[in-house]
Prior knowledge:
The complex is a heterodimer.
Chain A (H helix, E strand, L loop, with lengths): L7 E7 L2 E7 L9 H9 L1 H6 L5 E6 L4 E3 L13 H5 L8 H6 L5 E5 L2 E3 L1 H8 L2 E4 L4 E3 L2 H4 L7 H9 L1 H10 L3 E2 H7 L4 E2 L5 H13 L3 H14 L4 H16 L2 H11 L10
Parallel strand pairs in A: 2-3, 3-5, 4-6, 5-7, 6-8, 7-10
Antiparallel strand pairs in A: 1-2, 8-9
Chain B lengths: L9 E6 L2 E6 L10 H16 L5 E6 L4 E3 L13 H5 L4 H6 L5 E5 L2 E3 L1 H8 L2 E5 L3 E3 L2 H4 L7 H8 L2 H10 L3 E2 H7 L4 E3 L1 H16 L3 H16 L2 H15 L3 H11 L10
Parallel strand pairs in B: 2-3, 3-5, 4-6, 5-7, 6-8, 7-10
Antiparallel strand pairs in B: 1-2, 8-9
Helix pairs in contact in B: 4-6, 6-7, 10-11
Amino acid sequence: MSNVLSGSVDLEIHGNVAHLILNRPEKLNAMTVKMDEQLNSYIYELNNNLDIRSVVLHGKGEKGFCAGSDLTELDEYGSNWEYRNRFDRNLDYARAIWLIKKPVVAALHGWVVGGGLEMACASDVRIGSPDAKFQAGEIRWGWHGGSGQTQLLTHTVGPGNANLLLLHGEKVEADAALRMGLIQEIVAKENVLNRAIEIAKSIAEKAPIAAQMTKHMVRMAQNIPLEVGLLYENDSFSYCMTTEDAAEGQRAFAEKRKPQFKGK
Amino acid sequence: MNTPNLPEEFLFSMKNFVATITLNRESKLNTMTPAMGKALLELVPYINASNEIRVVILTGTGEKAFSAGSDIKVLDQYGSNWQLRNRVDYARGIWAIKKPVISKIRGYCIGGGLEMALMSDIRYASENAQFGAGEIKLGWHGGAGNTQLLPRIVSTGKALEMLLTGDLISAVQAEKYGLVDQLFTTSELDGAVDDLAKRISANAPIAAQLAKHLVRVSQSTAVDIGLQYENDSFAYCFTTKDSVEGREAFAEKRVPNFTGD
Lengths: 264, 261
């Protein structure tokens, strides 16, 4: 593995919110294999640490969230077949975001490109700054994205918009991204991270089991026949109602106070 | 990647492109603990990444059991009900292996043991094997594939018979159902599995892995989509060095020597 390239992915835990920080601002947070490995090494902790209830994902520096893979370093993934199999050895950064079971809020500013866009689409809620620019530019180099670009983007923005991004390969500005539903809100650049944290904190105050189940069921809605989804939802709902937190919620409602959830 | 450190309840060996995982808790019918599940899951990326592994054999120590599933006595080690729901699951670990997996089954193959066998690709068993989804007798149903994979392998009626009674079926019945792919005498089983593993590992690893992948795709997608996916994968196979070697060997009437490239 290369060890000459700069950059890291950092994990910070603030209260019940984990922050995943792409930290290579001098290269637009372009992902190296080392950063990919680092991000993947956090997933078990994110999923299993009961103190973590939601996740904020953001990139350092003024210029952008993430420019995707560092194309100068793709060979580090090995042969074509080994690169194809990166999911199977826990070495794909967009897949890593997808594997997080807790809700993920992405704060997006500046360039959100290639694998950066895949990480954004693998998140659950996306907040953008007015200067955010989204681009699935892989087609310009002779391929399409391999970690969700054609699949997640289509689920997120619909086939017409997805095809525009994927085949035209040009950037889409924040206001157009908002119209397509690629981002849920636009807030001033200096506030985008704070807004994402605010949403993540709000999620972290909810009952963790219900919040995680909700994320799971929304994914199911994108995956399975509606009739099965409706039945699954009802069984999940019934499960939620057996939790201590649901009992606390009902008590708090009756007592007109804010519930205190424990994740049980 | 380095071989992960494994607890003594797991034996892991590699020879001639064949890896063998042996559940090694004979005195407890090779039942699984949460720690064993976590260790198995840590082994999986290594198996998937290693070019020295083309086939995996999964088996248990001794004659009495392949595995009797989860050790019920230590179920509480998973934590709260919610943590149990979110567990690192050993049968899902077998499912996560991308290389072909052969289960070599002697004795009891029950509960989570049955789920590990179902998550494998080919099941060979000895005449003393017995199969059951016994969870229902304890008040629950399997949580890692018994209700989902069993009806994909045996008929719906046979699956429900097993899932609703929790009763054991014999090796002979299991073979009749298609749950066991081939039955052998106790003394023949090792040789038969070794021979099968050898024949698979002699084939082109990329094509073998993709064939496994596409069979799984066929179980989870519409046939028209599966057919298109198959064709794209077929085209990809022809970009590999091994496909060139295969054609050359065919023309030269010799056995191909595949490298996995």
